[in-house]
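User: I'm preparing a small set of examples for a lab meeting where we compare how different chains pack in three dimensions. I only have the primary sequence for this one, and I'd like the structure in C-alpha cell form so I can line it up with the others. Please keep the answer compact; I'll paste it straight into my notes.
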Amino acid sequence: MRIGNFIGTMGAADTVQGQARQAAEAETDGFDSLWTAQVAGVDALTMLALAGDRTSAIELGTAVVPTYPRHPMALAQQALTTQAASGGRLLLGIGLSHKPNVEGRWGLSFHAPAQHMYEYLTILNSLMRTGSVDFQGLHYNVTGEIQRMTDKPPTVCIAALAPRMLRIAGERASGTITWMVGPQTLDEHIVPRITSAAEDAGRPAPRICVGLPVCVTDDKQAGFEAASGFFSRYGNLPSYRRMLDIEGVESPAEVAIIGNEAEVEAQLRALSDSGATDYLASIFPTGDDAEASASRTRDLLKSLVGKV
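Assistant: Understood. Below is the C-alpha cell output for the 308-residue chain.
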C-alpha cells in the first residue's frame, strides 16, 4: 500500500509557496504521494503545478476537485496544464461535493448527481485523451476541441461511495478516493463493487485511495477527543453518514487511526488487507505540543513507506 500525505499537516500551509515547499519536503521524506483538497482556499491544481516544479518523482493528487463549479472543458485544460508542468505526475481526483455546497453555496441543482458524474467524466476523458468531444446528455451538451499541453492525460479517480458511483468509477475511471471509510466498509462495500465494475469493463484493477485522519499518541482517549473536535462535522453529511453506518460506528472519530506506533501500524495493515492501494494521511495533533505530535506521526508514516 502506497502512503501519501495531505498538505497542511506540517509547516507553513497558509501561503502558496509554503504549500509547494511541503510537496518538496514530502518527496525528500520518501512519501509516495502528496495530496491537496479543493475547498475554499488555494486552487488545488494551480498549487500542484507549482509543486511540480519543486519536485521530480512524487505523485501529486487532488482529493478532490468538485465538478459542479467547473465546466469539464475548463477542468480538462487546467488538468492537462498541471500534468505537463509536473512532468506527468498528476492524479486528478474529482468529486460531486455535497448537496449543501452545490445548492446552498454555488446555487446549482443537485438533480441526478450520478448521471452528472457519468456525463462529466465522459466529456473530461474524451477531451484529455483526444482533445475533442461531441456529447449530448441530460446535464451537458458539449462539442468542441482544446489544444492539449501534453498527450499523456493524468490518472483520474473519482470520489465514489454509493453503488452507482462505484460502478462509474470502475468502468470509466482509474479508481476511487474515499474519506471517512473504515476497513470493514472497504472490504464489504467499496472494494467488491468497484473491482467487479472494472473487471466487467475489461479495465485494470482499480486504485482504492483511502483518506483517514491519523495521530500517533500514547493517550488514545485524548486522540479520540481531538479527532471528535476536528472531524465531527463529516458525520452530518449523508454520503459519509452512510459509510459510517456500514462500518457500525457513530462518529468520524471512530474510524480515525489513533494509537501508539505499533497500534497505528496494525491499523494501516488492516486497511491494506481490506483492499486499500493508497493511504492518504490527514495528520492531526494532540496534546500541548502540536508540532511534536504531528512530527511523531509523520516519522512513523515515513518509516512505513513501502512496508505495509
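A couple of notes for your slides: The chain is about 45% helix and 20% strand. The chain has a mean pLDDT of 96.

User: Perfect, thanks.
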